[in-house]
Design goal:
Layout (H helix, E strand, L loop, with lengths): L1 H17 L35 H4 L11 E2 L14 E6 L4 E6 L12 H8 L8 E3 L21 E3 H11 L2 H11 L6 H15 L22 H12 L2 H8 L2 E4 L10 E4 L11 E9 L3 E10 L2 E10 L6 H14 L7 E2 L3 H4 L26 H16 L1 H7 L10
Antiparallel strand pairs: 1-3, 2-3, 2-10, 3-11, 4-5, 6-7, 8-9, 9-10
C-alpha cells in the first residue's frame, strides 16, 4: 500500500518539473536573404563558437531559437544583406520584429564598446581629467586609435567621444582602467564587470575578453544580446549625445608640445538617415563588419544589430539602414519575440525556511497523516520544484504572436 502511495506522490510532484523542460521539436530553418556576392578571398576562418544552449537560444521566445530567418507571418521579406546574423527590435516596447539567427554566436569587433559603455558610463564623471599611461596604448598594431598620448591629460568626455566616434581602442583601455580602479588590473576588473552585466540582463551569448572588441579567444556575442545592451546604452543621455556627435576636438597637450586635432564620427547613418539616433560600427579581419544603430520615426524607436557582414555590396551601416527601413514598414503590433528585462531573468529568491511546527502525537494504533517517509519525499520534491522555478519561468516566458515565415 505504501509503495503505491509513494509512486503516486512522486508522479504528482515530479511531472510538473520535468515535462516543461522536455526539448521541443526543432522547426525547419528558413534561409536568410543573401546577396549573390563572393566572399573576399583573404577572409580568415570563423572562430569555433560554443555549442548552442537550448535555454539561452530560447530567451525572448521559442521562435528566436533558430539559425535561420524569423519574421512575422505575412510580412514582406527583409532586404538581402551579407550579415551572418541580425535583428531588429523596438527599443521601448522590447518587441522583436524579426531577425536572422538572433542567438547565434559571433565575434563582436568594436560594437563591444557598447557593452563597455553600458557597464561604466554612469561610474565615471565626464568632467574628470585623467592622465594616459603607456598601458592604455597597448593595443593591436594597426588597429583603430583616436591618438591619445602617454602623459597626455584628457577629460573623460573626450575619451568617450574618441571611443564612440573614432572607435579608439586606446580610449577603451583608458576608460576601462579608470573604471576598474586605475591600477594595472583595472582593465581586467572592468572586463569582469562587463561579463557580469551581460549575465544580469540576459545576454547569455556574450563573453568579453577585451574592453574594446579587439579579438580574443572565446570572445563572442549575438545580435539579440547586442540589442539588450543597446537598450541600456540608449537610455543614457550622455551616450545618446556622444553617438550623435558628428565631429569632436582632441585637446592640445602643451606639456608634450603637441597640438590638438579634429576627428569625425565613423557612423555614416547620422549624416543623412531621418531620425537617426546614432550607434556603433565595428570591424576586425576575424569578426568582419558589425553594426549597432537606432532611429526614431514618429515616436517609434527601433534598433538594428548585425554581425559578420562584408562591406560589399553595402557597408555595415547601409545594411543597418536597409533593415531599419524594413522594420519601420511593419505594423507596430508585429512581433516574433521579446527583449527580456533584467527582472525577467533574475533568479527567484529562495524562500525563508520556517521553523518546523511540533508534530502531534499519533493516536494509539491510528494511521492519521502521511507516513514519515512520504513526508520526507514530498518535502524534497517541493524543494526540487522551487529550485527549478527560474528555469521554468524562462522557458515559459510570455511570447506574443510567435509566428514565422
Amino acid at each position: 500500500m505504501i509503495r503505491r502511495i509513494l509512486a503516486a506522490a512522486c508522479t504528482a510532484v515530479l511531472i510538473p518539473v520535468l515535462v516543461p523542460a522536455a526539448p521541443a521539436h526543432a522547426a525547419a530553418v528558413i534561409p536568410c536573404p543573401k546577396p549573390k556576392v563572393a566572399p573576399p578571398p583573404n577572409r580568415p576562418p570563423t572562430p569555433v563558437p560554443p555549442p548552442d544552449d537550448p535555454v539561452g537560444s530560447a530567451i525572448g521566445g521559442d521562435a528566436l531559437a533558430t539559425h535561420g530567418l524569423v519574421i512575422p507571418a505575412g510580412a514582406k521579406a527583409p532586404p538581402a544583406v551579407t550579415a551572418s546574423t541580425w535583428m531588429v527590435a523596438d527599443l521601448d516596447t522590447g518587441e522583436v520584429l524579426g531577425g536572422c539567427g538572433p542567438h547565434v554566436f559571433r565575434t563582436p569587433a568594436s560594437v563591444q564598446k557598447t557593452l563597455l559603455a553600458a557597464t561604466v558610463i554612469d561610474k565615471l564623471d565626464p568632467k574628470q581629467r585623467i592622465t594616459v599611461t603607456a598601458g592604455d596604448l597597448d593595443i593591436e598594431r594597426g588597429s583603430s586609435a583616436v591618438g591619445l598620448l602617454v602623459g597626455g591629460k584628457y577629460p573623460i568626455s573626450t575619451l568617450w567621444l574618441g571611443l564612440m566616434l573614432n572607435s579608439g581602442n586606446d580610449a577603451a583601455n583608458a576608460l576601462a582602467r579608470l573604471a576598474g580602479g586605475g591600477g594595472t588590473d583595472g582593465v581586467a576588473r572592468t572586463v569582469g564587470e562587463m561579463n557580469a552585466l551581460a549575465k544580469r540582463i540576459g545576454a547569455y551569448q556574450t563573453h568579453a575578453v577585451t574592453p574594446s572588441g579587439l579579438d580574443g579567444p572565446g570572445q563572442f556575442t549575438s545580435a539579440y544580446d547586442l540589442a539588450l545592451i543597446a537598450r541600456i546604452c540608449f537610455a543614457n543621455a550622455d551616450f545618446r549625445r556622444y553617438v550623435l556627435t558628428k565631429s569632436a576636438q582632441m585637446p592640445a597637450q602643451p606639456q608634450l608640445k603637441k597640438g590638438g586635432f579634429q576627428f569625425q564620427n565613423e557612423n555614416k547613418l547620422i549624416y543623412g538617415y531621418p531620425g537617426a539616433m546614432g550607434g556603433k560600427t565595428g570591424f576586425t579581419t576575424v569578426a568582419r563588419h558589425s553594426y549597432v544603430g537606432a532611429a526614431d520615426r514618429n515616436g517609434r524607436r527601433l534598433v538594428v544589430t548585425l554581425l559578420g557582414a562584408e562591406a560589399r555590396p553595402m557597408r555595415g551601416y547601409q545594411q543597418g539602414q536597409a533593415l531599419l527601413d524594413w522594420g519601420f514598414s511593419l505594423p507596430r503590433d508585429e512581433s516574433v519575440g521579446k527583449l527580456v528585462s533584467p527582472e525577467d531573468v533574475a533568479p527567484s529568491p529562495s524562500p525563508t525556511p520556517k521553523p518546523a511546527a511540533p508534530q502531534p502525537a499519533a493516536a494509539p494504533g491510528g494511521t492519521d497523516g502521511p507516513p514519515p517517509l512520504l513526508s520526507m519525499l514530498a518535502a524534497g520534491s517541493v524543494a526540487l520544484l522551487l529550485a527549478g522555478a527560474p528555469l521554468l519561468l524562462l522557458l515559459t516566458q510570455r511570447r506574443r504572436r510567435r509566428r514565422t515565415r
